[in-house]
Amino acid sequence: MYCSEECRSSSWDESHYIECSILPTLQKLEISELSFLVLRVVIKACETNDLKNILTFLEAEDNVEEMKGFNNKGAYSSSDYSSIYWLEAHSEKRITEDLFIRSLYAAYMLHCLETMTDFFTGIDVNQYKYRVGGLLLRHFQNLLINNYCITESLISKEKNLTDIELLGNVTDLGIAVYIMLSLLNHSCDPNAHRTSHRGDTSVLRAIAPIAAGEQVIL
């Protein structure tokens, strides 16, 4: 369900024309929200850039540690796929069972893309299929720990509700990736707080005095 015809049309052009046919299948997975995000990130990356160019650039970055996440102009931008690809995945810290199940998820999604969509139209499937599978596997790891809930506050018409009851009227709409937020460290005593604003805009607010040069922590 979309909020408007404009929203629906925009979503269709960006990624939904591919994902629509396989979303019901992916809903059967236990991690359906994460699988939707992984799928959309890869689809939009390949729609915005040529797949071959993406893979070539990522291989070049892999050889130079200082380049990871930055575009060819040296900027760290949320609009560039490499900044999402190089978000920390902690692959080396994952147990074998975890890597195995995420590999299965990636293989299943790759199979769905190949057999149920036009994703590989105009692409040499034999040459690029497994490399796309590698992108999916990467994101089943790094987006698991770098996603943020998109929420919406529901204002109740009931009277005499306490502040706690009002704060509890929050609905989760989905998850998204915000690369700048992923650069911030977590703390049990944070000095900043993140909220959703008008859909998928994420707002970071200070909840304690932050001195110049002091680390912002969530």
UniProtKB/TrEMBL annotation:
One of its GO terms (biological process) is methylation. GO terms for cellular component: cytoplasm; nucleus. This is SET domain-containing protein. GO terms for molecular function: histone deacetylase binding; N-methyltransferase activity; protein methyltransferase activity; S-adenosylmethionine-dependent methyltransferase activity. PANTHER family: SET AND MYND DOMAIN-CONTAINING PROTEIN 4. Keywords: Methyltransferase, S-adenosyl-L-methionine, Transferase. The keyword Repressor does not apply. Signal peptide: none annotated. Coiled coil: none annotated. Residues 101-216 form the SET domain. InterPro entries: SET-MYND_domain_protein, SET_dom, SET_dom_sf. The keyword Transferase applies.
